[in-house]
TrEMBL record:
Origin species: Eiseniibacteriota bacterium
Name assigned to this protein: DUF4921 family protein
PANTHER family the UniProt entry points to: ADP-GLUCOSE PHOSPHORYLASE, UDP-GLUCOSE--HEXOSE-1-PHOSPHATE URIDYLYLTRANSFERASE
Binding site for Zn(2+): C39, C42, H112, H163
Galactose-1-phosphate uridyl transferase N-terminal domain boundaries: 3-175
Cofactor, free-text remark: Binds 1 zinc ion per subunit.
Transferase as UniProt keyword: yes
Gene3D superfamilies in the cross-refs: HIT-like (3.30.428.10)
Family annotation (Pfam families): GalP_UDP_transf
Catalytic residues (positions): H165
GO MF term (any one): zinc ion binding
UniProt keywords, alphabetically: Carbohydrate metabolism, Metal-binding, Nucleotidyltransferase, Transferase, Zinc
């Protein structure tokens, strides 16, 4: 059983999941051109994954069979496990609890060779809907406090499966990173009133220098203080804290701007490995301040985090965001 342990100095939680270090050879890192023959995410091999928890397929077709366009299954080797109680413990300054949570995989398409950037907008929207529906369902489990949707693309970004997929992990605590963001939102509201991300959108629209794509519902831009070269954020231009409240129309608009952004990154940077993470409001936290603004952060893996960054929390970025925006704009829709 995984275990969560809390760092007593900074309050950061760590997941100890030794089972993930002993995964058998049926889920190995895959090789281009050979994985299709044995890939458990491809149609016709549904029995090779845990039972699906969500899928989009024509009415009348059986669960865990072919015919799906998007499919969600539990991770066969989860970082956190759905069974059990939290059973929190204290030992002096140390705190721990059982590694209870949910870890799921969103299989983005039946096409083994497709990646998210190559999918049509309606298919990306189907992936976005799957994430929304799984967040809504998991919110009903009162043990969970946060749901992280993320993607690892390429081995250097942590992907071990070639077939395109996004992941989702529900945690019983709010991650420290989100706590820091919530604190920043609250501080700005007390000092200036309103939402800090709404203020950023207004300022970015006024300057235009870091904007990649703008629509009536979403903005893709290079943040003012990026940690990594070509780090890109996508934010709704309307104020909304929780991703799971997005309508189908909202998610189609999101899919359109996400697809264009990823294609620009692939074109400008030769299909780099990347991570993206969805930042959305915590769940089952009635005492939390309501102010938040959901957004997606895309981080190409072009540099490595080294000693100075680990020691100080300062990131060294060799590409100013204004320059990055210009390069990516020149590769839009190529």
């Amino acid at each position: 059983m995984p275990e969560l342990r809390r760092d007593p100095i900074v309050g950061r939680w760590v997941v100890l999941a030794p089972e993930r270090g002993e995964r058998p050879s049926d889920f190995p890192p895959v090789q281009v051109g050979t994985a299709r023959n044995t890939c458990p995410f491809c149609p016709g091999r549904e029995s090779m994954t845990p039972p699906e928890v969500y899928a989009e397929r024509p009415d009348g077709m059986r669960d865990d069979g072919e015919g799906w366009s998007v499919r969600v299954v539990s991770n066969k080797y989860p970082a956190l496990q759905i069974e059990g109680d939290l059973d929190p413990k204290s030992d002096g300054v140390y705190r721990s609890m059982r590694g209870v949570g949910a870890h799921e995989v969103i299989i983005e398409s039946p096409d083994h060779s497709a990646n998210l950037a190559s999918l049509p907008d309606d298919q990306i929207a189907a992936v976005a809907r799957a994430a929304r529906e799984r967040i809504l369902d998991l919110t009903g489990d009162r043990r969970f406090r946060y749901i992280q949707v993320f993607k690892n693309f390429g081995a250097e970004a942590g992907a071990t499966m070639e077939h395109g997929h996004t992941q989702l992990i529900a945690t019983p605590t709010v991650p420290r990173r989100l706590d820091e963001e919530l604190g920043g939102f609250a501080l700005h509201e007390r000092a200036n009133g309103g939402c800090i991300l709404c203020s950023m959108i207004e300022q970015e629209r006024a300057s235009q220098g870091r904007i990649l794509i703008e629509s009536d519902r979403f903005l893709a831009f290079e943040p003012f203080a990026p940690r990594f070269p070509y780090e890109t954020w996508i934010v709704p231009t309307y104020h909304e804290g929780a991703y799971e409240t997005s309508s189908d129309d909202d998610l189609l608009a999101f899919a359109q701007i996400l697809g264009r952004t990823l294609r620009a990154i692939h074109g400008a940077l030769d299909s780099p490995p990347y991570n993206f993470v969805l930042h959305t409001a915590p769940i089952n936290e009635p005492g939390r301040p309501p102010l938040f603004h959901w957004h997606l952060e895309i981080m190409p893996k072009l540099t490595k985090v080294a000693g100075f960054e680990w020691g100080t929390g300062f990131y060294i970025n060799s590409v100013p965001p204004e320059d990055a925006a210009g390069v990516l704009r020149s590769h839009l829709d190529i």
